[in-house]
Write a structure and sequence with these properties.
Layout: H1 13-26, E1 71-73, H2 75-88, H3 91-94, E2 98-100, E3 117-123, E4 128-134, E5 138-142, E6 146-152, E7 155-160, E8 164-167, E9 173-176, E10 183-189, H4 191-196, E11 202-203, H5 206-209, H6 220-225, E12 250-251, H7 253-262, E13 274-278, E14 292-298, E15 307-309, E16 313-319, E17 322-326, E18 329-333, E19 338-341, E20 347-351, E21 358-364, H8 366-371, E22 377-380, E23 386-388
Antiparallel strand pairs: 1-19, 2-3, 3-10, 4-9, 4-11, 5-8, 5-10, 6-7, 6-9, 8-12, 13-14, 14-21, 15-22, 16-19, 16-21, 17-18, 17-20, 22-23
The structure holds fe (ii) ion (FE2).
Residues 132, 134, 138, 167, 173 line the site of fe (ii) ion.
């Protein structure tokens, strides 16, 4: 039939209904008809749909895929579940005692964004987790004061609050707690991305893969890579079998805090406050090809200007109280709270305390987006005008 276009460019309702009915009918042959109502599926999700556009009619065979939303997880609400699960079920029955953060906008996956998975784990005194190796890159951010350990490629790390411990893809690693108190840390992995790409594999045959391997010398990471501005050239630049990942596995929280403090009298970034990045010490690149890790200091009462980028970001609060506004939604935060900011959404941080610092750790998938030519960033100037930053 001939179609008539309305003055707004919308098809008449009877045609819309007929197209959707046709789409539903065609679904049994595993094809999808492009119709006007279902075209929002293909529109950039962060742009509003045209006013007055009818919803996708029943019968559309491909729903728009779920999008992450901004969300904060408050430590006081979720911590009791961690202690409870640790009481109820010994580690050997579950492999991990942990909860994973689930983005409310992504009900079909255990993930905070489409590229990042976050768990919070507890290890009780005496716990030992099996040594293993996998393709996802992973990190631990230590939330307890201290205790517990991680062994990576034979190097043993005793951890303290604020430490970032890396277990890059292709490195053998295990965890445990030989202290007297439970230890809690935040796990971050690029698991959802690798799962989507169908490249996840895991090995746990450490004993046969590395028979009689001597442990790495104590303090290897710090001895070789812990001197800023000096890079060892007489050892291989990589460890394990991972590619483009950092050979330094531990970044001390205390040193990171001191680095932030040393810069506190600088202007800092209008969008981030005072900020440092945890980098591969060999070449200054992000520690993983997929994820970048940063720490930022918001000085008392400091408020950052609105910023947005094509990367998604996950945060944990190490110190202080404040809030982050994400596209008009206010996320209040305090110590050990976690929050996620999906890509494209305008955000600004505020340290709500007029006397104390706030310290946030951030992980983003910016390196991945840069690698595929999709990283863009914008900020707002003092006058509110949008400025292209990348
Ligand atoms: Fe692991």
């Amino acid at each position: 039939m001939a179609t008539k276009v309305s003055h707004k460019g919308e098809l008449p309702p009877d045609v819309l209904r007929e197209m959707e009915a046709l789409n539903g009918e065609a679904g049994r042959f595993h094809i999808w008809l492009r119709t006007q109502p279902n075209s929002p599926v293909q529109r950039p999700w962060h742009l509003a749909a045209p006013a007055g556009r009818p919803p996708v009619a029943p019968g559309a065979v491909i729903p728009s895929h779920p999008r992450a939303v901004a969300h904060v997880w408050h430590w006081k609400d979720i911590a009791p579940y961690l202690y409870r699960v640790a009481e109820l079920c010994p580690l050997e029955f579950t492999e991990r005692q942990q909860f994973l953060l689930v983005n409310p906008g992504l009900p079909t996956g255990i993930k905070v964004t489409n590229t990042i998975r976050v768990a919070v784990s507890i290890y009780r005194p005496g716990d030992v987790a099996e040594t293993h190796l996998h393709t996802p890159n992973a990190s631990r951010t230590i939330l307890s004061a201290g205790g517990g350990y991680t062994i990576v490629e034979g190097e043993r790390f005793a951890a303290e609050r604020g430490d970032l411990l890396l277990t890059p893809n292709g490195t053998w690693h295990g965890h445990g707690n030989d202290g007297a108190e439970p230890i809690i840390w935040m796990d971050v992995l690029d698991w959802p991305l690798l799962d989507y790409l169908d490249v996840i594999w895991i090995r746990s045959d450490y004993a046969s893969a590395r028979p009689n391997e001597a442990p790495a010398p104590a303090g290897w990471s710090q001895k070789l890579y812990g001197q800023g501005g000096v890079v060892p050239r007489s050892v291989p630049p990589t460890r394990g079998t991972g590619i483009a990942v950092s050979p330094m596995f531990q970044y001390r929280g205390r040193a990171t805090r001191a680095a932030l403090d040393a810069m506190r009298d600088q202007d800092g970034s209008a969008y981030e406050g005072v900020e440092v990045e945890f980098v591969n010490p060999v070449d200054g690149t992000p520690v993983f090809p997929t994820l970048a890790y940063k720490a930022q200091l918001l000085r008392p009462a400091e408020a950052t200007r609105p910023f947005r980028h094509t990367a998604s970001a996950m945060y944990v609060v190490l110190e202080g109280t404040g809030y982050t506004e994400v596209d008009g939604v206010r996320l209040d935060w305090g110590p050990n709270d976690f929050f996620v900011i999906p890509n494209h959404q305008w955000r600004s941080h505020v340290n709500a305390d007029a006397h104390k610092d706030a310290v946030l750790y951030q992980v983003t998938d910016a390196p991945l987006l840069r690698a595929i030519g999709q990283y863009r960033a914008q900020g707002r100037g003092r006058d509110g005008a949008v400025v292209d930053l990348a």
